[in-house]
Amino acid sequence: MRRRSGAGAHLQDAGPWYTDLVRRLTITLDEETARWARIEAAKRYTSVSRLVGELLRRHMVDEDDYEGARRSYMARPPVALTTAGGQYPSRDGIHEW
């Protein structure tokens, strides 16, 4: 069996299932962002590829959490702001809810 060299050589050692679970992606970064990514990856003892994957995954989860919270809030019945006398509550009163 011929071994690959260069980019992606480690994929052969991971097993045939690995490429079914992980997709390769090429991204373009400006020099300042690329430098930050290399330094941040080194601080975390990981690769730039893994760092970017983790950041994107965290962003995806945060977006899903936010959307779920928004839907939950919007599903609640509306609350009348005026009292029987027609007065709106004070700003502080609103934030006490």
Task: Outline the secondary-structure elements.
Blueprint: H1 9-14, H2 18-21, H3 31-43, H4 48-75, H5 91-95
Helix pairs in contact: 3-4
Structure, described:
With 97 residues, the protein is mostly helical. It has one domain (11-80): Met repressor-like (Arc Repressor Mutant, Orthogonal Bundle). The protein contains 5 helices and no strands. The N and C termini lie far apart (68 Å).
Short précis:
By secondary structure, the protein is mainly alpha-helical. Helices cover 58% and strands 0% of the residues. The protein has a single domain, classed as Met repressor-like (Arc Repressor Mutant, Orthogonal Bundle), CATH 1.10.1220.10.
Descriptive tags:
58% helix, Arc Repressor Mutant, single chain, mainly alpha, 97 residues, disordered N terminus, 5 helices
